[in-house]
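Continuing from the previous page of notes. For each protein in this section, the sequence appears first, followed by its structure tokens. Read the first protein now.
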Amino acid sequence: MYRIVVLALDGVVDSSLALTLDSIATANRLAAAKGQGNRLATTLFRPGRRRIRTGMGATHVVEPEIRIEHYDAVVVPGLGLASPEEVDRFLAARSSRSVIDWMRTTGRRAPLVAASCSAVFLLAEAGLLTDRTATTTWWLGAAFRDRYPDVDLDETRMLVESDGTLSAGAALAQIDLMLHLIARATSPDLARDVSRYLAIDQRPSQARYMMLSAVAGLGQDVCDIERWIRANLSRAFSIAEMAKALGMSTRTIDRRVRLATGRGASRFIQRLRLESAAHLIETSDLQVSRIAEQVGYRDASTLRRLMRRHMDASPSEMRRRSA
């Protein structure tokens, strides 16, 4: 039996907590149907508290004390923190500091500690992600990178496992985290069965969902940069040409994009080309060669190579899954 502590915090996203519990219940139901019995056990826990309230007001009874040596993993479902200011207030709250202290001293002794969305900030605050790779919800990437420079953050990825930690992207990426955990704790076959039962597709990247202009506090210049790139994706252009059109220097563009995304302007342009290509692959019948032209690449082979490298899937795999 693989035993999981679900760290249930005030303000947890209801859907993220539900996905955690439902995926485990589904795995046990499917395993039992095969005569394997329950494979996973879950305990809701909050240090020193008997009840927690979710983001939508639902109340859950939790265990106030546990012995961590009896458990195999600690899972922290996503929190509903939408801005850097909300993250700062949450992490500074007395109730949050007690949870962070517990994670730093006791929770880290679990073989695996996992979190999604803005809950990944808790892992970093407790020092569990130092010198490790992680992901978080994409619109808080810049704030995370600024607060934790010793964490190798890649917010384009949906899921990252790194030296005893597991992190996932935006709140609904909790299902990706749980499918990975089920595969790890039981078998890939059972995880695939759960995925089929819940009608969940593989989503290796957050890149196609990212829109920089939707992020509050990055400034009008960054929004203008993104807008200009999207308007000119179908052709090749230089950063110097973009800078001239926007009335900025190339250095200013690179600095502001890097501050917002952690990557230079060239990498950001590439990311926008690839997410646009992914959208066309999944929503149209256009040939890959035609899609490559529409997003600014000379040939389909270049697009295929870049999608495989940066989105962990070929165009044909993406199209097959969307179908």
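Done with the first. The second protein uses the same format. Note its length before scrolling.
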Amino acid sequence: MIKKKGVYNVVAPEYITNMELTNISTQLLKNEIHLSNISSFLLKLVLGEMSDIVLKGNWVSSDKIVIDEFQFKYLTTMSAIKSLNL
């Protein structure tokens, strides 16, 4: 039951970077993922201010839904990906 009003970030409780997600996915899929490096200059040129999201990431907290006793089925990225039975 939601007890508070306002905006909720519906995100997993584990903070993970794109690099960590890529490494976990590679590990679980037993496959190498090759991604090209794109210069930050090019990203800034194409995306403008939005390039910060790609280059620096975004810290989003699930604290509010945890406090309201939301139950996550998977607490880690590793357990969620493993559940896909790939």
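What the second structure shows: Helices lie at 18-29, 40-47, 51-56, 63-67, 77-82. The chain has one domain: 18-82. We return to this in next week's lecture.
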